[in-house]
Amino acid sequence: MSVTDFSITYSTDKFFNMTAKEKSEALLPRVNDTIDIYVKPMELHTDILDVAYPIECIFLWRFGFVLRRYNGIHQRFYTQPFTSSVWTSIYIMIILASFTFYGLSLWDHRLFGVECSFAHELLLAFSAFCQHILPLQAISCSRRVAYLTFILCAYVVHCFYTSNLLSHIVSDTDEYMDLQSIVDDNYQIILLRDMNIIMDKQIYERSLDENLSIVWEQVKQLIVMDLEDAMKAVINSRSALLSDYVTLYPIWKRHFEPTEVCQLVEIDIYSNVKNYLFTSKNFSYKEEFKIGVLRAQESGLSKKLLTIDKYSPMSCRQATNHYKVQFEHTIIPIVILFTAYFLALLVLVGEKIHYARYRVFPYVN
């Protein structure tokens, strides 16, 4: 087994009192440089490096957003496959199809004397989308063609709904959260009242790098709260508190249950910074170095070396994306079901009263 010894040299560049051109050149490998390997996060601007050098301090700097993972998708999981506009279009299709079927049933009633009812046609159109179609009594060809076309269309919509619903339920996109997740889930950013922040938009935008600009729209709408109100908002609503982690965790433990604290998610401000390895042109072990880095990545060593030991408020079980169905997840369908049964009972009572007064078939022998 051959062992190769590398002579490691740390290059310290004085970033203070340097021009912009000198700062830019200091970040890039030089042609005749004696240093073999550069390790620098190249997405950080030189303005940040001025006040955060050496660069290792940024990765140990524990500051960012503290939030509670929002699982509201499971509250109305049955509505997730379609947007509101699609659901509105489906309702309009059912109403229009019901009027069309009723018009065709009137035509059959005139020609063949069959029964016609708008309520029956409305139930038939609704049952087609649920793929539990009521018995059809179509005699004319026009009515049969209308039924067949609508049922095929409803079948395609139903297949898309079931497949998309399954993908939403088993999706693991919520397993990892970053700055983009704050924007996608529309979190409200909260700032503590005793913290200072540059409120001038132009000055603050210039200091934002590519990562922080993702949440700039949310930052412009931030709310300043006291510590107690801010922590309650994180637990009870979809809010993200911008603060450090170590200072807040003792307060979390005193005021909230362990299960609530374990649901908190940390998103570092510089969570999307990439790490690069740059070598000089005269480095004679380029291929060996590439192979070694790839093997370290495949075995998981590189991920382990770059992982920071985070301060944990308590021993929590590993977060999982499998949720148990609770009563609150089905409360809305149950309310709709009992409301429909109650309305059906009122209609039944009304029919009894009406037909008891006028005594017509089928309420009389």
TrEMBL record:
Gene Ontology, cellular component aspect: plasma membrane
Membrane spanning residue stretches: 82-105, 111-133, 145-163, 331-349
Subcellular location: Cell membrane
InterPro entries in UniProt: Insect_Ionotropic_Sensory_Rcpt
Top-rank taxon, per record: Eukaryota
Keyword Glycoprotein: yes
Protein's membrane topology: Multi-pass membrane protein
Predominant location category: membrane
Keywords carried by this UniProt record: Cell membrane, Glycoprotein, Membrane, Receptor, Transmembrane, Transmembrane helix
PANTHER family reported for this sequence: IONOTROPIC RECEPTOR 20A-RELATED, IONOTROPIC RECEPTOR 31A, ISOFORM C-RELATED
Protein name (record): Ionotropic receptor
